[in-house]
Amino acid sequence: MHELAVTESILEIALRHASQQNARRITDLFIVMGAWSSTVDDSVQFYWEMISEGTLAQGAQLHFRRIPTRLECKSCGHSYQPDGRQLQCPNCQSLQVKVKTGEEFYLEAIEVETEPGDAKTNLQKSSQSL
Amino acid sequence: MTQRIPIVEKILSANDRLAIENRARFDAAGVFTLNVMASPGAGKTSLIEKTVSALKGSLRIGMINGDIATSLDADRAAAAGAAAVQINTGGDCHLDAVMLQAALPQLDLARLDLIIVENVGNLVCPAEFQLGTHKSVLVASIPEGDDKPYKYPGMYRGVDAVVINKIDLLPYVPFRREFFKNGIEVLNPGVTQFELSCRTGEGLPAWLAWLVAQVSSTRQNSVSGHLAS
Questions:
Q1: 8 Å CB contact of A106 and B157
Q2: What's the whole-model pTM score?
Q3: Which of B41, B59, B68, B163 is 20 to 30 A from A51 via CA?
């Protein structure tokens, strides 16, 4: 339900980095989401088409990399994916557990088209599009 | 020419930056701020009401309430003796640092000791948005069921304290206490917990004592900060 705010934030970060590089157009965005980050990629996609319109990022493709939750037991070292019914270590029942992956939530990279030539002109174009 | 630009920037970093600004304002004013989160009906407003009634003689309390519509909860806090401000999120399922910042001018921060922010009732979205408050607390309640830490790990991971409300209902509702507690322990090892009932008052003194201690330590830090500068 908070995907509009999330999508706006993705757009803001992408446009800022693209204009720093004098990009003409953003073609691809690579988003990393852990299973525990509680964001729905379909909803992000839905909002993306609405809010990217008229910007450098219009028509850009969103790529989502989902990272499953992985826990590691601090007592016996067992590494496992929780099944939703149990969080503690299934091997030794310890509660001393470290979250190794699953909480990621960041924009990893973007791909942009740049024009070789006058950097200043490109920058003006980018800021107009913003 | 296509070029890949590596970024690795946290999504919602803009919100996080504003949260840091909010915190700086609270620190400058020497006011302790608390973000209260829970599902709808867990007892956020009841806990705030009880807290305000018990502490209003010794602390100057402000309350900021986030709700999708209506000011019913802010009205209850105001009736209990807090300076209350209502934020209607207009459909948004959480408060964020921007909404909080916009509400702050309605409170005289320097004349308050404690500000309680009541977030929108929801166990998913509020966990993602830092507000800049000093501490955050999750109000869980017995009738919600013992599986909530397992279903909403993000919420349980990020908080500084868990209040387990409605313990007077334990004899009537199936609730595996150990299962619930084990989930919390994995997600947030050693987190401060309070078991209480807003209805009977059982367990409230420990919660109030914790809160008062947080308020005094913020005030002391602020005073020593002013002396040092």
A1: no
A2: 0.90
A3: B68
